Amino acid sequence: MTAVRHTGAEGFLQRFEGLRARLPGRRLPWLEALREDAARAFRAQGLPTRRVEAWKYTDLRPLGEAGFEEALSSIDGGQALPAAHGGGARAVLVDGRFRADLSALDGLPYAAGSVAAALPGLEGRIGAVAPAAALPMVALNAMLFEDGLLLTVPAGVPGGVLDLLSLASGGARPEAFHPRHLIRLEAGASLTLIETAMGPEHDGTTLHNPIYEIEVAEGATLVHARLQQEGRQGFHLSAVHARVAAGGTYDNFTLVAGARLTRNEIHIALTGPGASAHMNGAQLLAGGQHADTTTYLDHAAPGCASRQTYKTVLAGRSRGVFQGKILVRQAAQKTDGYQMNQALLLSPDAEMNSKPQLEIYADDVKCSHGATVGEIDHGQLFYLRSRGVPEAQARSLLIQAFLQEAVEGVTDETARAALGAAVSGWWEREALA
Amino acid sequence: MSLVIENLSAAVDGKPILNGITLAIPAGEIHAVMGPNGSGKSTLSYVLAGRDGYEVTGGIATFEGHDILAMEPEERAAAGLFLAFQYPVELPGVGNALFLRTALNAIRKHRGEPELDAMQFLKVARERMRTLNMTDEMLRRGVNVGFSGGEKKRNEVLQMALLQPRLAILDETDSGLDIDALKIVADGVNALRGPNFSALVITHYQRLLNYIVPDRVHVLLDGRIATSGGPELAQRLEAEGYATIQAEAA
Amino acid sequence: MPAVTETLETVQSVTDSGYKWGFETDIEMEFAPKGLNEDIVRFISAKKNEPAWLLEWRLKAYALWQKMEEPTWAAVKYPPIDYQDAYYYAAPVQKAKPKSLDEVDPELLRTYAKLGIPLKEQAILAGVEGAGDSPSDSGRMPIAVDAVFDSVSVATSYKERLAKEGIIFCAISEAVQEYPDLVRQYLGTVVPQGDNFYAALNSAVFTDGSFVYIPKGVRCPMELSTYFRINAKSTGQFERTLIIAEEGSHVSYLEGCTAPMRDENQLHAAVVELVALDDATIKYSTVQNWYPGDAEGRGGIYNFVTKRAQCRGRRSKVSWTQVETGSAITWKYPSCVLLGDDSVGEFYSVAITNNWQQADTGTKMIHVGKRTSSTIVSKGISAGQGQNTYRGLVRVAPTASGARNFTQCDSLLIGDRCGAHTVPYIENRCMTAKVEHEATTSRIAEDQLFYCRQRGLTQEDAVGLIVNGFCREVLKELPMEFAVEAQKLLQISLEGSVG
Lengths: 433, 250, 499
Known about the structure:
The complex is a heterotrimer of chains A (433), B (250) and C (499).
Chain A: H1 8-19, H2 29-45, H3 61-66, E1 69-70, E2 90-94, E3 97-98, E4 111-114, H4 115-118, H5 136-144, E5 149-153, E6 158-167, E7 175-177, E8 180-185, E9 190-199, E10 206-208, E11 211-216, E12 221-230, E13 235-244, E14 249-256, E15 261-270, E16 276-285, E17 290-299, E18 305-314, E19 319-328, E20 336-345, E21 351-360, E22 366-374, H6 378-386, H7 391-407, H8 413-423, H9 426-432
Parallel strand pairs in A: 1-7, 2-6, 5-8, 6-9, 7-10, 8-11, 9-12, 10-13, 11-13, 12-14, 13-15, 14-16, 15-17, 16-18, 17-19, 18-20, 19-21, 20-22
Antiparallel strand pairs in A: 2-3, 4-5
Chain B: E1 3-12, E2 15-25, E3 30-34, H1 41-49, E4 54-63, E5 66-67, H2 73-79, E6 81-84, E7 91-95, H3 96-111, H4 118-131, H5 137-140, E8 142-143, H6 149-163, E9 167-171, H7 179-192, E10 198-203, E11 216-221, E12 224-229, H8 231-240, H9 242-249
Parallel strand pairs in B: 3-10, 3-11, 6-9, 9-10
Antiparallel strand pairs in B: 1-2, 1-4, 4-5, 7-8, 11-12
Chain C: H1 2-13, E1 29-31, H2 38-47, H3 52-67, E2 90-92, H4 106-114, H5 119-125, E3 143-149, E4 152-156, H6 159-163, E5 168-171, H7 172-178, H8 180-186, H9 197-205, E6 210-214, E7 223-229, E8 240-245, E9 250-258, E10 265-268, E11 271-276, E12 281-288, E13 300-311, E14 317-324, E15 329-332, E16 335-338, E17 344-353, E18 358-361, E19 364-367, E20 373-383, E21 387-396, E22 404-414, E23 419-428, E24 434-443, H10 446-454, H11 459-470, H12 472-475, H13 480-497
Parallel strand pairs in C: 3-7, 6-8, 7-9, 8-11, 9-12, 10-13, 11-13, 12-14, 13-15, 13-16, 14-17, 15-18, 16-19, 17-20, 18-21, 19-21, 20-22, 21-23, 22-24
Antiparallel strand pairs in C: 1-2, 3-4, 5-6
């Protein structure tokens, strides 16, 4: 096969044309139709430009110019994997493909496995929470996904902690992969999912384009921590779509430490009375990194609560974006919504753009948001130094404290510890590098 | 008779709280209603003041012969009924002076008295405030905004002193007060004592009644008056607690 | 909750009588032919006897406008506007300038009387010479007024008194004749012709508006104000205001506006440009009370306005205060470009939307100079089916070291069919700058209403008191005389909208 390099939206569409006969589930008419619809939507929208309001601060041109090809998985079973955060239960994907040989899923009280292997039974489930036409990156994923994690925790089952390891093998050429994860917690179930996205080991250019379809049923609780620590040549475009039923809780933490260009969209709909969402995140940016966290919280039912804390620290020439919208529908009386996003500029060349947003159609609500952008507080810095702490260490302490506020919002202890470890020492590492 | 309550029942969100209260306060008397948490004390005060959401399901309440249950809250206020709130409400941005003057003038207007302009009002208000140990600064702040618990209660007493009600209902005004503040509240009530003033003092503890000595004491249990007596009943409750009365009532 | 519902009902029942400025003046008018084309632009320019450069300037704007598209990003909805179905010039037929009150068209007299402008000023507004030049005998600070009636300024008071201080306060059409160099030097330098769709339209067809020039070191001895009145049917009003504050000068300016009640929607597309040089201060206050439409959403003014200030000088300061109670649709973002080091921008806003009113309003603070600072306080009140959006941009350039911004946006909802939205944009490219934004949404709490009523206030008075408290931080920024007027206006708007 001769490698033909395509760019922009056209490149992805041509890759779809070339691959479609070989994509998993090609004989399933519903899936065929779903991929067709996605391709149509993607063709219509293309890769969004900055003239599209939702993409005002993030430029995807470098993505269009990279010219991605299909990933050739090259990590074998013998490779040492990073230590798991939880009790050893682990699902591993390499280049977006589920790897039973690397995973450890035996004896779990719930079902976890490969999306590709289960495709014939997934009609109506794929695309149910994340409609293909809604977002360009969802459409892109729907066209090209091969696999993903399929997870269902039965009613009333406490699922404990599961590690999800997402590795990119990388290669000489830019490679793209588009996993589709389907996660369902039935009534009263619980699970803590800690995802670590890493690789490639070498400086290969990759595009990781995961889409999550998450259903949290009545009274269920899902804690979902995402630690993205991918290589600095990587592109990361993700979308989490979650639906939370009455009395359910979805707790999402999104950490961005890696990749050259990241866009994480988190769409949560609180669809039943008393549902709640915790949304927290941290973006740790240096060099020429660009990261964009865009949240969309839909309060569709009465008596729901949401809490959001997002923190960004920016060194070098990095650029950070936070866009966060809270929608309160007319039916969502007694909503309690709060959002805070804060950024620390650590370098004169860094830039932060922030757009919090409230859209409210119910009167009996308590909604507020706050945003700050600034540098490290000189008073605090001086206070620490006057107590004998050297400046570099004082800075590091203050950055750490700043990030910790977001981490503390995570309701599960294991996830909180994993995130705390991931953010700690970031500044020392960057300052040394 | 000042206040007459006969067989009064009320519900909140469909749940019965008051189950047939009967009690009468002759003009010039101060009565205390005591009861444990959840006995319906605050509900009684809200029903008498006309708060939305407190549904009267039976019985009557008259004040100086008028059916108050049929009146709007502001009409009851104009008729001379004053409720000192257990938790006085904050009104951000609404200056305390403006609020007090607006309220005073609304009531004066109803009584056919001339309204006070800002200067006249300040003169009257400052006089009252001196006796309550309140500073001018409290007039400039938003109503109850940033007030300590004691300041809020003093602000209630100031309003009572200005509005000169003929029936005051004190809804656990003593909760969260230190002894000095408690005396100030009591002095405020005692200053109004006279043949044309009655009060209903609602409280959990006997402490306040050392300073406002009631003519009668009623014990409220499960939305009913379980027993009534003189001031000595309060002493007995302090010593024995509500359990004995509960046992007797059962 | 039932208390609020009841209030809503009470208030809605008086809605139709709520707008007290909705009458129409029957007076002989002169119109340009309906529609918009190059000939109309030439007609307006000729009517104003303008120099060639200004006609060229207008024609360039018209050419730009034709290539532009109406903005759609605001959170407002309305049927497409037929720009050819309106008059772009309408003016009362001017007789010889009247010498006494008796000679003034009684209809104009009645108009100003009804609008509540005192007799003495009334005489001035109707164009009686000399009546306005004696100092006010009431002992209050006199207020100089420029009255714009549809497309023309009918009179400006206290001109001579102001001229003694070197202050120019006149209609912009007059300034074009009398001070062409000043107008040419500044016109379009803050809001260029092609800035946006409505600004381009205004640049092509603007008819009148006010011109203010405060010389170096002068503190304007009185409030300046412009009173805008739309009267004629099927006309748009396109006024243009230009205020220049020279080094060390100080001016406080206020504009007010009303219009008749009509079933049709009328377009008001104004441009206001402010220039503040070193150490100059401009305080610009607006009480916007255009006809808001009726309880069913019929009629009302489309208020699509571009207002911008340049703080060009060091330590210059511009403060915008607006009370927006009228208009069917409001689309305006009074902004400050903070160029001079240590310059200051402020935006204080109250916007009420009742019935079917829609407002998309806010500000832009562009920090360029060092240590520039800005404050934004926005209070939005939604009632009925009203939709109220705060939209604001705070942008800090890399040059603006030590810049500061603080933004506070609060929304109050009255009833469950309205909407309150907050859309701030924060763009910071300067490490040493600090930007802070806070927004809250709430309603009038049931316990607040009950507390007030227990003290004897009626439901309506209680709502008025609480809403005025909510707006207090903004209202206190208005000049004294207007603060009282604005408070009453809030209450009236609420009567008709909130309940």
